[in-house]
Each structure stands twice: as C-alpha cells, then as structure tokens.
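[audit] Reproducing an earlier prediction to check determinism. Same input, same settings, fresh worker. If the tokens differ from the archived copy the diff job will pick it up downstream; this log only records the rerun itself.
[audit] input (62 residues):
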Amino acid sequence: MTPEQFSAALKALGLTQTAAAEFLGRSLRQVSAYANGARIPLATAKLLRLMVWLNLKPSDVQ
C-alpha cells in the first residue's frame, strides 16, 4: 500500500489520522509516518483495503 492509498483509505473510512491511530492501536506519529512514506505493515494495509472494499466503518469491526 502506498502512502497515497493509505491516505485515500482513511478518507474513504472517514478517519482522521488521530482517529486512525486510535483505531489501529498506533501512535499518531506512526500513522503520520505511514502517510508520509514509512512502510505500512501488511496486516494494516489488508485491514484497511478490506474495510473499504466491504464498505465497513471502524464501529463495524470494534
């Protein structure tokens, strides 16, 4: 997942970086790093892709 795809997935899910950090159990610093080019863990990328594909919101999977 590219940083652009990561940011697009957050937008599609209605998540700010702060909300994404809380949802993913990561720090805001780490989520910001993902959006700026840091390697995104495969499990995180798969979760976000599936949520977008299935049109799930974070409240649907918590």
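[audit] rerun output stored. Observation attached for the diff report: The two ends are 23 Å apart (CA to CA).
[audit] end
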